[in-house]
């Protein structure tokens, strides 16, 4: 059978066209692999996307001088490799005591022998070598510390509380700690108001969750009482009635607390999903104490 040269050529081109997209999607390993680290501080989520170069370089054999060598002192560094290191906050934060609005930023640094400048730039994507100082949102000064050796550049959160965290930049034998704080109480209150504004008419759980947190942390008690009333009005349950009983007892209204707690026990017995025996016993113990 005789093959048409033109048809054969077209077939080759068609096969190449089909194969091209597949080849274009092929990912090769990077000497400095990409990484993402995230941390929730209170109700604020923080995420860092960065690359992790090695002290020993791409071959993992040669020992490189990092500080003052591969990473020069007193010059802007992209704080990693490959691309802009991006840090994202979904709520406002304080960085070393200075306010930074929620959003995504390019995380740059200027390493120094005794002091570093940590930079949050408004440009979070693109070419890291096109850094423009006029687009900085914030600069803070921090002091580096001696740390355990890290062959790979590492960003982590070694210390976290309900309203603070330390963002640590670690490489070679150095660690640069950056102090972050958040106003968790204010952020939770704002989130609660937004969630309640969107809540369905038959939703009693969301206002109860908001009220419980405010009562437990003893702030915005007017909002807590209002939201607890809303929860009970939608559906009286063991959970919201026992919360109301505890709130009344905290105000010194023991008789009202006892009456409300007994209603909570009755609601719990009638419910399809019963409260835990431990919760019932704890409330019964409180009733006995309040009656005294």
3D structure, described in words:
- It is a single chain.
- The chain is an alpha+beta fold.
- The protein folds into two domains: 34-181, no CATH class; 184-291, Serine Threonine Protein Phosphatase 5, Tetratricopeptide repeat (Alpha Horseshoe).
- Helices cover 37% and strands 28% of the residues.
- It has helices spanning 5-24, 184-198, 205-217, 221-234, 238-250, 254-270, 277-291, and strands at residues 34-41, 44-51, 86-89, 93-95, 98-100, 103-110, 116-121, 136-142, 145-160, 164-181.
- The strands form two sheets. Strands 1-2-3-6-7-8 form a six-stranded antiparallel beta sheet, with no helix packed on it. A four-stranded antiparallel beta sheet has the order 5-4-10-9, with no helix packed on it.
- Helix 3 (205-217) runs antiparallel to helix 4 (221-234).
- It starts with a helix and ends with a helix.
Set down the secondary structure blueprint.
Blueprint: H1 5-24, E1 34-41, E2 44-51, E3 86-89, E4 93-95, E5 98-100, E6 103-110, E7 116-121, E8 136-142, E9 145-160, E10 164-181, H2 184-198, H3 205-217, H4 221-234, H5 238-250, H6 254-270, H7 277-291
Antiparallel strand pairs: 1-2, 2-3, 3-6, 4-5, 4-10, 6-7, 7-8, 9-10
Number of domains: 2
SS strand fraction: 25-35%
Structural class: alpha+beta
H and E string? HEEEEEEEEEEHHHHHH
- Principal-axis shape: elongated
Compute the average pLDDT: 92
In spatial order, strands of the major sheet run: 1-2-3-6-7-8
The number of helical runs is: 7
């Amino acid at each position: 059978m005789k093959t048409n040269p033109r048809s054969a050529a077209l077939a080759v081109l068609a096969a190449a066209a089909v194969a091209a997209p597949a080849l274009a999607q092929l990912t090769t390993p990077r000497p400095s692999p990409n990484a993402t680290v995230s941390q929730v501080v209170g109700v604020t989520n923080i995420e860092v996307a960065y690359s992790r170069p090695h002290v020993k370089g791409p071959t993992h054999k040669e020992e490189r001088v990092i500080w003052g060598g591969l990473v020069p002192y007193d010059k802007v560094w992209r704080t990693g490799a490959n691309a802009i290191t991006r840090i994202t906050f979904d709520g406002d934060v304080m960085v070393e005591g200075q306010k930074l609005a929620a959003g995504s930023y390019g995380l740059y640094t200027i390493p120094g022998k005794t002091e570093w400048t940590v930079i949050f730039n408004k440009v979070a994507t693109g070419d890291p070598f096109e850094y423009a100082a006029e687009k900085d949102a914030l600069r803070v000064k921090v002091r580096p510390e001696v740390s355990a050796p890290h062959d790979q550049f590492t960003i982590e959160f070694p210390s976290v509380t309900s309203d603070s965290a330390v963002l640590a930049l670690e490489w070679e034998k150095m660690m640069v700690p950056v102090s972050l704080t958040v106003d968790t109480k204010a952020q939770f209150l704002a989130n609660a108001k937004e969630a309640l504004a969107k809540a369905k008419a038959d939703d009693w759980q969301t206002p109860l969750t908001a009220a419980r947190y405010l009562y437990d942390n003893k702030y915005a008690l007017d909002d807590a009482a209002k939201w607890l009333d809303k929860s009970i009005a939608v559906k009286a349950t063991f959970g919201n009635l026992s919360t109301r009983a505890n709130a009344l007892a905290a105000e010194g209204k023991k008789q009202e607390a006892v009456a409300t707690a007994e209603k909570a026990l009755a609601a719990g017995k009638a419910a399809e999903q019963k409260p835990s025996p431990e919760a019932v016993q704890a409330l019964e113990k409180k009733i006995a104490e309040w009656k005294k």
